[in-house]
Amino acid sequence: MASVMTKHISEQYDTELAQIRELLMEMGGLVEQQVNNACTALINHDVQIAEEVRDVEARLNQFEVDLDDRCVSIIAKRQPTAGDLRAVVSVMKVITDLERIGDEAERIARMALTLADNPIPEDQYAIFRGIHNNVVKMLNRALDAFARLDVENALRVIRDDADIDRAYNELVRHCIGKMRDQPDEVEMSVSLMWAARALERIGDHAKNIGEYVIYQVKGQDVRHSGIERPN
Q1: I need a labelling partner for 203 at 20 to 30 A (CA). Which of 8, 86, 106, 129 fits?
Q2: Domains of the chain
Q3: Residue 79 in 3-state DSSP?
Q4: Is the pLDDT of residue 96 over 70?
């Protein structure tokens, strides 16, 4: 009888965790959309899309609250141990990173509104567009790795973060040079650097998600370790 009860409790836990992960991926899809829309608004000087990004931010905040409540409830009711506890903790960490990515997307939307009255530059924000494309790929790969518990893909995300950092530094150098040569475009260059900084931080959060995959699967905390491959 005890074994039947244990199996029943285990099945309930699995069902509840699966529901949480499903909602988490829905939140992740919305976050990806927010990042894409914010960057599109900036590149095209599209005020309407920028405003839509800012409006959707409240939905992401509600996702965070609801998912956190579910995770706390599952810990309190099921008291998971070892691998099961790591699974819930990993979900809670990803929730936080996704909410912060949403914040960064909203920041890009604000920069888009700041830039909207300026003419689109001749290079059409080439470096920024490159960073945007790579960050979106990185975020998509991180979420896919988390959904599939794919350590190899998670490691690739962690390695890709260095490329985002280099591209961000290139954009900063480009903007500083432009401010020196064209003082009338200082405000525009500063806004673009802030938007690029937000993208760079989104890359950092995607990297965090990759690290949580390794933590969940391998039980290893690889933050700050510079690890290329877990044991």
Answers
A1: 86
A2: 2-218 (1.20.58.220)
A3: coil
A4: yes
